[in-house]
Amino acid sequence: MPLKISSSAFSPNGAIPAVHTCDGLDTPPPLKWSGAPEGTKSYALIVDDPDAPDPKAPKMTYVHWVLYDIPPSVTSLGDGGVASPAGARDGVNDWKRGGYGGPCPPIGRHRYFFKLYALDVMLGDLGSPTKASVEAAMRGHVLAQSELMGTYQRTKVGAK
Fold first, then answer.
1. Residue 5: which region, alpha, beta or left (left: phi > 0; alpha: psi -120 to 50)?
2. What are the domain boundaries of the chain?
3. Residue 26: which region, alpha, beta or left (left: phi > 0; alpha: psi -120 to 50)?
4. Exposure string over 22-36, b if 16+ CB within 10 A, otherwise e
5. Residue ranges of the chain with pLDDT lower than 50?
6. How would you classify the pairing of strands 42-52 and 60-70?
7. First to last CA, the chain
8. At a CB cut-off of 8 Å and minimum separation 6, what does 98 contact?
9. Residue 134, SS3?
10. How many other β-carbons are positioned within 10 Å of the β-carbon of residue 155?
């Protein structure tokens, strides 16, 4: 069975509910996964938006969440703000802080990719790593990966 990530908050390619964005409580959506390959020692999760700042003229991929060293016994992340399970480590998002930062697109409907990696190692303390640092540390250690894409478009840009 291949590695698969899903959310009870939105379907693949569906709209992410506002509660999980800057227009709501800005809490991560519930995520669950299954199908870890044999030898999985940890998971890493990276959430990013390749449509920043404008989907019609993207200039960068904006990083919303970097979480790594998720223990192999963990197969879900809860709703309601409890983002990091015991033992997991936060990287730095593009707001220059750890933890989840929800969708907050300045214009248009953006795509948000929730990318889960099953690794054959624990990465250990990388300090305050960026997405690029975690990806570099994972190189050669990815047993499987899966992604879930959701979209979001603000109804009142500049509301928060």
1. beta
2. 4-152
3. left
4. bbeebbbbbbebeeb
5. 159-160
6. antiparallel
7. 42
8. 66, 90, 91, 92, 128
9. helix
10. 7
In CATH terms, the superfamily for domain 4-152 is PEBP-like (3.90.280.10)
Name residue 19's amino acid: V
Residue 78 confidence (pLDDT): 76
The structure tokens listed for 88 are 């997991």
CB contact set of 158 (below 8 Å; sequence gap of 6+): none
Question: In terms of Cα–Cα distance, which of 37, 41, 43, 45 is closest to 70?
Answer: 43
Check residue 19 and give its pLDDT.
94
d(CA 143, CA 84): 22
From residue 108, how far is each of 10, 56, 58, 68, 150 by CA, in Å? 19, 8, 11, 30, 14
List all residues 6 or more positions away from 132 whose beta carbon is below 8 Å from its beta carbon: none
Q: Is the peptide bond before 129 cis (omega within 30 degrees of 0)?
A: no
pLDDT of residue 79: 60
Beta-bridge partner residues of 73: none
pTM of the model: 0.94
- Tally of CA atoms within 13 A in the half-sphere of 9 that contains its CB: 24
* Number of neighbours of residue 53 by Cβ within 10 angstroms: 15
